[in-house]
Amino acid sequence: MKVVDADQLLTDLLEELSVDWCDVGWAYGLGVDRGLSGAPARDTGLGAIRLGLLDELFVAGDVDFEGFTAWTEQGVAAAERIRALWLAQGSMNPDGPNIAWLAITDRGRAALARRQASAEPSPECDQ
User: Which of 103, 89, 106 is nearest to 49 (CA)?
Assistant: First the structure.
């Protein structure tokens, strides 16, 4: 079985969020892209969302014709709300737009830049 942790998926999610808002279904899809399926993809996706919300790397909210609107609750409350709505759907792959959307914060952009910089090979490795 493929081992992917929530932190790896969080980096993938931050990369997607640096381009545009994502519904929570992206977290599941990114897990599938890394070789997960079913409950492991769901649980790892929920873990990545929880980590990002607790570290204030992104916020949860809704999207309508006017754009993104952050929920008043964030952090643990938002993570629990997303988890409850996802599990209530009874599907591993959620109907993400009907649960929540995520938008990256300045703190999330800075964290992504640090993660990308630490993943780059050092010049000594190229010689």
Answer: 103
The model's pLDDT over 68-117, given as tens digits with 9 standing for 90+, comes to 999 999 999 999 999 999 999 988 888 888 999 999 999 999 999 999 99
Q: Are the beta carbons of 103 and 70 closer than 8 angstroms?
A: yes
Q: What is the pTM of this model?
A: 0.89
HEC readout, 14-63? HHHHCCCCEECHHHHHHHHHCCCCHHHHHHHHHHHHHHHHHCCCEEEEEE
121/118 Cα distance (integer angstroms)? 8
Cα within 13 Å of Cα(44), Cβ side: 27
Residue of 26, 27, 42 lying closest to 92 (CA atoms): 42
